[in-house]
Amino acid sequence: MLPVVALVGRPNVGKSTLFNRLTHSRDALVADFPGLTRDRQYGQASYEQRQFIVVDTGGITGDEEGIDTLMAQQSLQAIEEADVVFFLVDARAGLLPADQLIADHLRKTDKQVFLLANKVDGIDGDSESAEFFSLGLGNVHQIAAAHGRGVAQLIQSALLPLEQEFPEMLVQKTAQEEELDAEEQLEKLQSLPIKLAIVGKPNVGKSTLTNRILGEDRVVVFDMPGTTRDSVYIPLQRDDREYIIIDTAGVRKRKKVSEAIEKFSIVKTLKAIEEANVVLLVIDAREGISDQDLSLLGFVLNSGRSLVVAVNKWDGLDTDVKDEIKRELDRRLGFIDFARLHFISALHGSGVGNLFESVDEAYRGATKRINTSMLTQIMKMAQEDHQPPMVRGRRIKMKYAHAGGYNPPIIVIHGNQVEDIPNAYKRYLMNYFRKALDVMGTPIKMEFREGA
Ligand code: GDP
Ligand code: GDP
After folding, report:
1. pTM, full prediction
2. How would residue 60 be classed by pLDDT, with cut points 50, 70 and 90?
3. Counting atoms of ligand 2 from 1, which one is nearest the CA of 200?
4. Where is the EngA-type G domain (predicted)?
């Protein structure tokens, strides 16, 4: 028996985005492509070491009259069956009458309701979500479902009271079991082609680059099924390696059915990132770094996928302009120290060939086998070189480390007080692991477990 969490709210508040985030298991990484069709209604979620069932109810429009017609039968039923209700509102759109109607209904149920103000990324969350207190549902939890912000804390506070009633919810795998799972995942990853998503905002040159890549190599292209909303999957063989290009610009489709240029879709881009092993983020040198670039970068970092950045349209620029652009990139992208940066011209082809060296390197890094003895040894060396600080008068002691997954590599560290390790020390550890393991192009994830 697992607890059931129901997602309710108006259409467009971000229910399916949250649903996808909660149900996106590691297996999705290696799901058969296109593999984009998942059950949108019920899903098994695994998040923050907890398993639960999540139900995405249809949107409630508020155009109908009366609460009975307003709430579709299935939404009402989902609320009845749920142990916890997540009621989503849109912090950007503000409080709307339909929110009020849903709240009226929820106040009458005896269910535990969590009010979530979604989409607080890039806005002043505190002031934009203040008005939702008037719904009378208590605390307003600020989240950004698309980026994952606030979701971990939410899951922890919402599910903690249910742990007694649903002990099965806690994913209690032993270190050995986790390591075996990771090994299995690695074997699957190694038997599949490298999925490379080419993403970027409109007009940065994604289609030009995709065509360039396909044109330069003699490729056998065969069509993959895909609806207009989905990306196009293009198998590509290059130096005896197999890839699948996830083309968000829809190059192949456009060529084939002479369709109008597809409009940029953030949903499509997010799906492509989730599906990929390596993401190639294209930026327009002439436009500088925009908020949209940074938010795409945020999605990539959050997904844990490997990353290569291509700064496109590097042709015909004066040296001083190039220097200025490089300085700006340094200033604004300095925080992604693991990703390789390439200056290319998709139009003329310069620099395009070298991209694949970094793509391969990033994939190698993401799937480089790591084992317990190696990780534990590196961890101990790091600990000897630089002791973790005391926290509330207690000494942090890391005991051993093992693999928890790949793409991104996950390092699980066991010990005493490890959950209290300060961020500065985590960064130190991360850099230590990166150097010692010699991996580039992929983020490394660390998880901390209390006790032996
Ligand atoms: P649903 O109809 O309630 O299932 O809503 P969706 O999950 O389809 O989301 C509606 C729109 O809001 C989509 O364009 C999402 O990309 C966007 N969205 C969802 N969550 C967030 C978020 O955290 N931040 C931002 N900025 N947009 C979001
Ligand atoms: P997409 O929307 O990201 O797929 O962008 P496109 O590939 O359609 O390119 C948008 C515009 O930028 C087109 O006019 C391209 O010719 C131009 N473009 C693409 N790559 C380059 C490049 O490397 N240099 C220059 N100067 N223009 C480019």
Report:
1. 0.64
2. low
3. 3
4. 3-166, 194-367
Give the DSSP H or E segment for 116. Answer: strand 112-118
Q: How far is it, in rounded angstroms, from Cα 103 to Cα 91?
A: 15
Instruction: State the Cα angle at 230 between 228 and 233, rounded to 5°.
Output: 110
Please give the Cα distance from 410 to 185 (Å, whole number): 12
Ligand 1 center to 451 CA (angstroms):
39
Taking CA atoms only, the protein residue closest to ligand 1 atom 17 is 14
Comparing 450 with 386, the larger pLDDT belongs to 386
C-beta of 203 in contact with ligand 2 (< 6 A): yes
Q: pLDDT tens-digit profile of 248-257?
A: 876 655 554 4
Paired with 283 in beta bridges are 311
Question: Per the annotation, does 10 bind a ligand?
Answer: yes
According to the annotation, is 431 in a ligand binding site? no
Note the pLDDT of residue 137: 94
Which ligand places an atom closest to the C-alpha of 350?
Answer: 2
Say yes or no: CB of residue 11 within 6 Å of ligand 1: yes
The ipTM assigned to this model is 0.58
Share of the chain above pLDDT 70, in %: 85
Closest CA to 16 of 145, 141, 132, 131: 145
Q: Tell me the residue length of the chain.
A: 452
Residue located nearest, by CA, to atom 22 of ligand 1: 119
Query: Quick check: 174 and 53 in contact, CB under 8 A?
Result: no
Q: Is the CB of 249 under 6 A from ligand 2?
A: yes
* Separation of CA 17 and ligand 1 centre (Å): 6
The CA-atom distances, in angstroms, between 112 and each of 58, 64, 108 are 20, 26, 11
What is the tens place of the pLDDT at every residue in 327-340?
Answer: 999 888 887 889 99
pLDDT in tens, 3-56: 999 999 988 899 888 988 887 633 333 222 222 233 346 777 877 778 898 888
Ligand lying nearest the CA atom of residue 149: 1
Residue 14 CA to ligand 1 center (angstroms) comes to 4
Mean pLDDT of the chain: 84
- The dihedral through the CA atoms of 412, 182, 18, 166 has a sign that is negative
